[in-house]
Amino acid sequence: MARTVLGSAPSMPALFARAAVTARGRGGGLPDTRLARTGVRVEAADLAAYDRVCGFPLADTLPATYPHVLAFPLQLALMSDRSFPLALPGLVHVRNRVDVLRPVRVDEALDLEVWAERFARHPRGATVDLCASVSAGGAEVWRSRSTYLSRGAQAPEGAPQSDLSLSVGDLARPVATWQVPDDAGRRYARVSGDVNPIHLSGLTAKAFGFKRAIAHGMWVQARALAALTGRLPDAMAVDGVFRKPLLLPSTVTLATDPVAGGGWDLAVRNAGSGAEHLLGTVRPL
Amino acid sequence: MAPQTRKAAIVGGNRIPFARSNSAYAQASNQDMLTATLDGLVARFGLQGQRVGEVVAGAVLKHARDFNLTREAVLGSRLSAATPAYDVQQACGTGLEAAVLVANKIALGQIESGIAGGVDTTSDAPLAIHDEMRRVLIALGSARTVQQRLAALAGVRPGMFVPEAPRNAEPRTGLSMGEHQAITARQWEISREAQDELTVRSHHDLAAAYERGFFDDLVTPYLGLTRDENLRPDTSVEKLAKLKPVFGAGDPDATMTAGNSTPLTDGASAVLLASDEWAASRGLPVLAHLVDAQTAAVDYVHGGEGLLMAPAYAVPVLLARNGLTLQDFDYYEIHEAFASTVLATLKAWADPAFCKERLGLDAPLGSIDRSRLNVNGSSLAAGHPFAATGGRIVASLAKQLHEAGPGKRGLISVCAAGGQGVVAILES
Amino acid sequence: MSDWYRDLANSGVGSTLVKQLGLPRPAVLRRYEPGAPLLTGPAVVGTTGGSRLHEILIRLLEDAGVPVQPPAATDGERLGAVLLDATGVTGPADLSAAQEFLTPAVRRLGPSGRVLVLADPPSDAGSPAQAAARQALEGLVRSIAKELRNGATANLLVVPAGAEASVPGPVRFFLSGRSAYVDGQVVALTTADVPADEDEERPLAGRVAVVTGAARGIGAAIARVLSRDGAHVVAVDVPAAGDELAEVVNEIGGTAFQLDITAPDAAQRLIAHLRERRGGVDVVVHNAGITRDKLLVNMDAARWHAVMAVNLQAQLDLTQALLDAEGVLRPGARVVCVSSQSGIAGNRGQTNYAASKAGVIGMVRAWAPAFAERGATINAVAPGFIVTEMTARMPFGTREIGSRINSLQQGGLPVDVAETIAWLAQPSAAGVNGQVVRVCGQSFLGA
Question: Locate the Ketoreductase domain: which residues (chain C) (predicted)?
């Protein structure tokens, strides 16, 4: 296994550009590479901007989804590298799991490590998991597993079946209605660095086959967790599957059900059609 | 040593007629209306140049410039400039909560007199600049060099020039109060007919109260308005039945219309409270005493309770503390945010399951004599300038109790945004 | 409201123009201000043989610091007032003394000067000749009033035997600027208990006064003057005028009471308010009034009833209720009713209004004895052409004619009516009862 420690976060627009021009002719297995950064500090202004966009209160501990923003540039570097078998443009985020092992303080120095694993078969192509682990003081405090679908791609022989099932309650009662504006993608891109063109504008999204720009799945998940602020366990496993893309702008509803033993089931659906954008669970660890 | 407590007297009140949004008071600010209301109270009770212990008031929709709204209104009024003041805000409960705060200080002997009030305008409501534009301007203000200023200005984009209007929606749910109440109305199966009947009664009772001069010493005209603009003395169930539902979108059986919901309204109210001695020394009447009060809140976001159901929780606590039953009142003032709010609250108190499971009571509170409810009309007819409603109710009920004679008791119940409720007992 | 013509006529160029055209030249009237001297120049006091009141007048003038000159003095100084004690005339021959005294004295009268004649009542004269002489004085005074210029006035006080104590208060009123627009009037005094001392600057100190229709115009002026004179004013007006009422009240430091005085329980509500909040009332001014003008041939019942209800019936009902209510109307109470010139002279298009205002006069006269028995008084004040917001809306011609056809050649101000009412409310006006005092500048209408 090759482990590369980067001195700073790579430039994401450059990575997206590199991934775009090198999209053709990829294939093969997942690279056995890990990218890492050490001693990463959270910038308070960056966190505040992220909190505002997602609806979290600015606090001394990080929102469950925030370390993803720190790790994502490394994951992008991994995916944009020629050795990565799937073309980045067109990759769709279909599931995101986060384990918060303990609350992470804003002022902790964090060590990040990312890698790819579990190349899996999917009825419409292949999925791959981009994993991240965040440690503080030598102990893992946070980890995530983001599953991406590449339509039409082929998983290697003998690859396992992709698992996108998640069981939640009936979630019949909406507790909130959100009007998601058409600039929601641009706003989240600014605070997360995820400048994937499918989120930025109708024009750029059309180039990749979407009718309109679509919201970031990570924003939807973060916004739902933000709505449960004050009612979440300190250590928890957060899971979410992204179903229908959330086209911008949209009016959506959030439904939450508390579950026995603590934790929540949740769903974000289109307010009109009821189409499911996100199904999620939160369970104490 | 704990000070002896006494009960605060309600001496009287004043309000300006309530106007429909963007109508008679379209050019009036909160400060304008509150000042006029205080001046009317001063005129009624001869308080020119006098210092009362404290003036407590608030507004729900407030401009940034109104950070010291009540004190500014006092300074513009005929009261002594040496009268202290502070602002409170508990959404639609503001006016009643202000009265409770003043009454408590009087009860503790910290002040001898005080004025509680509230004001709101939906016509002169604050518009905020776009949040990102605001941040740009803040950055610009703190920039020290030309480069920093240019960098700050570089963040400006055309969309930021569109101002943000305040939304009449709960921040955590994104639902308007009406949409929330529509859920409650459906849950409690409150019929359209029952809501319309309550609405008609509100209009007829308010009109009758005006006719018999009940408001002669409770209301002072303002900007050409002499009666509440929303009042429709000739409304009827038949007329109301023609209105289309406006809340409960998508529900084919939606019941809530513009008629049986309160419209957006502008207005202000104020109540003069005092110790008995203070009132007696000035030859001022004691209409009633504020006996006790209680607030409650419900989890309307994740807890499955209706946004406006908190008073249903506050009342049993208040009753228990005062050794009273729901039937021990001569008059009830249940704020008509929506007709269905009143009806759902009454239904909940009579519902054994709700009283047992939600309120933790052995037996339901029971029903009330509806002829004692909102006898001089309420918000459906008068309108509801959020923070001004409490003052309207306190002064009107105190006068009603005074007219009925000594020893009469009244219950006030006001629901508020954020799943809150303020309730109080007055006694003549 | 400015009187453009008066201002023009008193300006440099305008004054010349007005003189050359032979137009009337209305004067700027001397009006009362607290602390101002009673008169602006010395006084002369004459008699016609008898001199029942001479000493009272001299003492009053001396107390007020007014220099009193001998009647024969002829030095150049303009006189502030010419007073004639004409009591004791026995026949027309005695009147020549009056003429002899008045002719040189009135010639010396200064701007806004005062001619005040005091006489015995013709009604209790001992002979027709005596009655004739006493009555003759009325014609004399009214004519002097018409001859005087520069804001000077002439009035007659009728003083029956035994009513001497009632004299000083009314004399002070007629000499002072309070009576600026009261001209050519005859006021009869009665015997009464007049309080010995009175704070002349605040004669109503400690008293509670109710003023109806106090939100604007004459009513607001009444409230201001009563308050200035020391009274706590309970200002009453219809609820619909409550905002203007509150402004007036907050300016003067009184209390506002919104009330429709025609409501069935109006009197009881006002009495309850006075009893609870003030412990009673000393002065009641029935000022509220409305007009609903129409020629009689076009008059409808609604117009007729509305005017009668507010202008007359409410005054009757409230006064009766106050008399009936135990302990509310305090000893020495004063009721002043606002009548109108229309009630005396009649007015085209105002059958309802004039009837109601004439009715007020009848009411006052009928009630006077009963009030006297309680040591109280009831009087009426009848304003003439008073410049208000209402008259400002009149057509120019009507307004100009209305304001000029009087001896002072100008319209009065609301404060002139108010000053007269405030005087009648004073303790020292105890001897004025059942009278109708016109505040009209000696209007040519109904004189």
Answer: 207-389
